[in-house]
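Technical note accompanying the year-one report. For the benefit of new consortium partners, we illustrate the data format agreed upon in the data management plan: each record pairs a sequence with a structure-token string. No post-processing was applied to the example shown here.
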Amino acid sequence: MTDVERLTGIVRGAPWFMAALGAGRQLGLAQWCIGAGALRNLVWDALHGRAGPPQLADVDFAYFCCDDLDPARDAALQRRLAEHCPGLPWEVTNQAGVHQWFEAHFGHAVEPLLSLDDAVASWPEPATAVGAWLDDTDRLHVIAPLGLDDLLGMRVRHNPRRASAHTYRERCASKRYAQRWPRVVVEEPLC
């Protein structure tokens, strides 16, 4: 079994995640996915033998559209997702516009992203730099530009592309990876 097949099996076995993907598909966007912490938590809970919906701070719905960078669009899409799956804590972000607010939020400027894959590759850890989307034929697609080794191997490493070592350490402390999932290995950043 390939890593993609293994991940696909975990996702398809989670009714709440499949419902979220179905809601995302209904938005009719060209490039989108649900990923980051929601997918990581689902996978790590499954690998730890935990059933049911995971504890979620948010469900990251990422999309890429250069034609409309208005933050009001994100809010409108978030409302539509909440109508389809009201029990989920949706967070919608147009990755094409991240460069417009990133410095104010994280303290340093970043270049515009080129695509959804480019955006996912910039997320803070390779284990969270994974997304999934559902096409019109119910085929599940995986976006994993940094691979699936860290996600399926339950390893947290720093992705220095956009997150500083300081930000990475803060994330690890706040996410409590090792406490929530005892088999997870958290690595110190190299820089």
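Partners are asked to follow this layout when depositing records. The domain at 3-186 is CATH 3.30.460.10 (Beta Polymerase; domain 2).
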